[in-house]
């Protein structure tokens, strides 16, 4: 049986540098951690205040929807946490 030929691969040549790569400037994200923690604490305080006052506070007309508002603040905190690097 004849031997197969070994093919020589062409050396990689990079494309001509028509454009220089622009440096990506990362903005400071120092605001993320304080905002995230603030939203977590506001949501927790909202829910605790609702239970401690037996539904009279923070907003009485919302009734049990106050729990949803509290969890909304906590969910917003998790949303902000995706920006943390």
Element order: H for helix, E for strand: HH
Gyration radius from CA atoms, angstroms: 29 Å
Number of helices: 2
Backbone shape? elongated
The oligomerization state is single chain
Number of strands: 0
Low-confidence runs: none
First-last Cα distance: 60 Å
User: Which range does the strand content fall in?
Assistant: under 5%
Fraction of residues in helices?
A: 40-55%
Biggest beta sheet summary: none
Explain what the structure shows.
With 85 residues, the protein is mainly alpha-helical. It contains two helices and no strands. It has helices at residues 32-52, 65-81. Helix 1 packs antiparallel against helix 2. The radius of gyration is 29 Å and the shape is elongated. The termini are far apart. The model has no long low-confidence stretch (mean pLDDT 86).
Give a brief rundown of this model:
The chain has 85 residues and is mainly α.
């Amino acid at each position: 049986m004849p031997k197969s030929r070994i093919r020589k691969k062409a050396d990689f040549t990079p494309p001509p540098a028509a454009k220089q790569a622009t440096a990506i400037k990362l903005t400071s994200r120092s605001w993320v951690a304080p905002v995230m923690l603030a939203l977590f604490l506001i949501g927790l305080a909202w829910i605790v205040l609702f239970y401690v006052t037996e539904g009279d506070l923070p907003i009485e007309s919302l009734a049990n929807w106050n729990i949803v508002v509290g969890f909304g603040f906590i969910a917003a905190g998790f949303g902000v946490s995706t920006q943390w690097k």
